[in-house]
Amino acid sequence: MNPRLAAARALSVVLSGKASLGSSLPDVLGKVDARDRGLTQELAFGTARWQPRLSGLAERLLQKPFKAADRDVEALLLVGLYQLFYTRIPPHAAIGETVGCVEKLKKPWAKGLLNAVLRNAQREGEAIFAELERDPVIRFAHPRWLQKSLKAHWPDDWEAICVANNAHPPMMLRVNRRKANRDSYLAELQAAGIEAFACHHSEDGIRLAAACDVTQLPGFAEGHVSVQDEAAQLAAGLLDLAAGQRVLDACCAPGGKTCHILEREPGLAEVVALDLESKRLQRVQENLDRLQLGAKLVAADARATEQWWDGQPFQRILLDAPCSATGVIRRHPDIKLARQADDIAPLALLQGEMLDALWPTLAVGGVLLYATCSVLPTENREVIASFLARTPGARELDLPSGFGVAQSHGRQLLPQDEGHDGFYYAKLIKIAAQPKAGTSQ
Fold this sequence. Notes:
Elements: H1 3-15, H2 24-29, H3 37-49, H4 51-61, H5 71-86, H6 91-100, H7 102-105, H8 110-132, H9 136-140, H10 144-153, H11 158-166, E1 172-175, H12 182-191, E2 196-198, E3 205-208, E4 225-227, H13 230-238, E5 246-250, H14 256-264, E6 270-275, H15 278-291, E7 296-299, H16 305-308, E8 314-320, H17 335-338, H18 344-358, E9 362-372, H19 381-390, E10 394-397, E11 405-406, E12 411-413, E13 423-430
Parallel strand pairs: 5-6, 5-8, 6-7, 8-9
Antiparallel strand pairs: 1-3, 1-4, 2-3, 9-13, 10-13, 11-12, 12-13
Helix pairs in contact: 1-3, 1-5, 3-5, 4-5, 4-8, 5-6, 5-8, 6-8, 10-11, 13-14, 18-19
């Protein structure tokens, strides 16, 4: 499949609203010939990253918008515009290749249209962008609902958040402390000619100066190191793990935190790794196998405890809750296209339901760590505030002050250019069992 056509088809799925978040672009890219996958990913991710700007330009250049049935042509146009303004592909090649893809869409009428619009963009695009950038949606390339939300919640930081979201993410590593330590592995990377730096917050974290194929990493196949963002690496340390504990990792896929928990504390009694779909657990098992670790994998809805919980309490629970993923836009730029403002309230409701369902499985004196990769307080501090208000036996524990921004509940990490992703943590302890229904406190 032509890389430009593959990128356009991936984007058209997202534009049409037929894709689930986090699966649309990766799923389509996974079907592309390996030789073309790098270029296809660059085109698809890059176009998604700058879609608000590219769509604004396209709207000015088109006489009328595309029909819903022609989302594929619209996506192809955006891919062409992305090549013109954000790559080093020669303009004649970008235009010619983009127009040439129309034949495979079996919409010959679009050939002349795309050719004309792309040539007009080549001549007038920069001037049009200069006019459009008075609108912050165009200037910062974020959908209006998200730009307004970020500005409302983070008035001093929203511009920096947008800039970080539009940057290419750094490649972060987590050293497996069962097999190496960070200093020794940094020396191995240096010997292999790979420039790298110790992360600021994670004791096991390393940031590479430039991304590379994992096969180039010393000891990767042997489980010496894994790829994981620094913000996500903080979870295992915040759990205060100790030998003999029974640990639940709810919503565990793809398994990075599950593996880190096992790496940090070999003496755990058991780790139960729970996720909704068995298909997602296959990736968890692959990571466990490579790292030579073991956990009990369970495919179930975390809220339906009667279907999967054996009645034995957990001393530690990690709930990395489903969320808008607005803290990891730079890694998943199709979030800009797939997420809508009215998605947030239902997600917050789901997060609260998961907290309510999992709390009874936590032992008295046990700790639940709540996490999301969102930067929106609706999914973070407000969820925790509501849970604490309705749960008499729950109390909040302080988190270390060395990372993120203190909130009324928990701490928020904002995405950093050349640093960690956006992430949120809150730490809760169970000081008393919940009263049974029909009894007074």
